[in-house]
C-alpha cells in the first residue's frame, strides 16, 4: 500500500508518517530528508538543492521526479511506503500517477493534515527554537507557507476529485492526531 501525506509546513506530518510507517511496516520516504542528506554529503543533487531549500523554494520537478522514481523501486518499498513531502506540485502528482501506472500500482490513499495557519506558525517557531534547520528562519518559514499555498494546496482538489483524499484534523497532541490518522487509514483500507 502506498500513501501520500499532504499538509502545510509545520503541520506535523513527518512525525505521524514515521510512527505509522513503523506500525504498518512501510518505508517512510521523506523527500526533505533525502535532500538534506544530499546536501550533507555534498553530492551534485545536494549542491543544486541547497540554495533553493535555504530560500524556501521548491526543487525543480524533473529532479524530484527522478529522485522518487529511483526511490520507490528500492526493496524496502515492497510492503508499501508513505510519501512524506512528495508530490508538492500538480506536475509531480501527475508524474507519480504515471510512475505507479507503469508499475501496475495505485495509491492507497492521500492523507491531508489540516491545521489553521496560526497553529502552523506557532509550531514552526517552536521547531526553529529546537532543531536549527537552515530553512527555519522566520522569513523562510513565511516563504515556505506561501509556496505551499500557491503550489501544493491545489493537490487537495486534485486528489479529492479522484476520491483518494482523507482529511485528518492535525490540531492536538501527537497521540490525539495519531489516533485520528489510524482511524482514517483503517477506514480507507477497510473500505477497499
Ligand atoms: P520538508 O522537509 O518536506 O519540509 O522539505 C524541505 C525542503 O526540501 C522544501 O522546502 C523544498 O525546498 C525541498 N523539497 C522537499 N520535497 C520537495 C518536493 N517534493 N518538491 C520540491 N522541493 C521539495
In total, the number of strands is: 5
- Percentage beta strand: 5-15%
Radius of gyration: 16 Å
User: Average pLDDT across residues?
Assistant: 93
Shape designation? globular
Number of contiguous helices: 9
Poorly predicted parts: none
| N-to-C SSE string, H for helix and E for strand | EHEHHHEHEHHHEH
Tell me the strand order in the biggest sheet. Answer: 2-3-1-4-5
**Helix percentage:** 55-70%
The SS-based structural class is: alpha/beta
Query: Span between N and C termini?
Result: 12 Å
Q: Which small molecules are bound?
A: adenosine monophosphate
Main pleated sheet: 5 strands, parallel
Describe the fold and architecture.
The longest helix has 17 residues, at 174-190. The chain has a 5-stranded parallel β-sheet, with helices on both faces. Helices cover 59% and strands 14% of the residues. The relative contact order is 0.20. The protein has 9 helices and 5 strands, in the order E-H-E-H-H-H-E-H-E-H-H-H-E-H. It has 192 residues and is of the alpha/beta class. Bound molecules: adenosine monophosphate.
Q: Helix and strand layout, with pairings?
A:
Elements: E1 2-6, H1 13-24, E2 27-30, H2 31-41, H3 44-54, H4 61-71, E3 81-84, H5 90-102, E4 107-114, H6 117-131, H7 138-152, H8 154-161, E5 165-169, H9 174-190
Parallel strand pairs: 1-3, 1-4, 2-3, 4-5
Helix pairs in contact: 1-9, 2-3, 4-5
The protein binds adenosine monophosphate (AMP).
The site of adenosine monophosphate has 17 residues, from helix 2 and helix 3.
Amino acid at each position: 500500500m502506498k500513501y501520500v501525506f499532504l499538509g502545510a509546513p509545520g503541520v506535523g506530518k513527518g512525525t505521524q508518517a514515521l510512527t505509522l510507517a513503523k506500525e504498518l511496516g512501510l518505508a517512510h520516504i521523506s523527500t526533505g530528508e533525502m535532500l538534506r542528506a544530499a546536501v550533507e554529503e555534498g553530492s551534485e543533487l545536494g549542491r543544486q538543492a541547497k540554495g533553493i531549500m535555504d530560500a524556501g523554494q521548491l526543487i525543480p520537478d524533473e529532479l524530484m521526479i527522478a529522485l522518487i522514481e529511483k526511490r520507490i523501486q528500492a526493496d524496502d518499498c515492497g510492503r508499501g511506503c508513505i510519501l512524506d513531502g512528495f508530490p508538492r506540485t500538480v506536475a509531480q502528482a501527475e508524474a507519480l500517477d504515471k510512475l505507479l501506472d507503469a508499475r501496475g500500482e495505485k495509491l492507497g490513499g492521500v492523507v491531508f493534515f489540516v491545521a489553521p495557519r496560526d497553529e502552523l506558525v506557532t509550531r514552526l517557531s517552536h521547531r526553529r527554537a529546537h532543531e536549527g534547520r537552515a530553512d527555519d528562519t522566520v522569513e523562510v518559514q513565511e516563504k515556505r507557507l506561501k509556496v505551499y499555498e500557491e503550489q501544493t494546496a491545489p493537490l487537495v482538489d486534485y486528489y479529492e476529485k479522484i476520491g483518494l483524499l482523507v482529511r485528518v484534523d492535525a490540531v492536538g497532541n501527537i497521540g490525539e492526531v495519531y489516533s485520528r490518522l489510524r482511524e482514517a487509514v483503517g477506514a480507507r483500507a477497510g473500505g477497499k
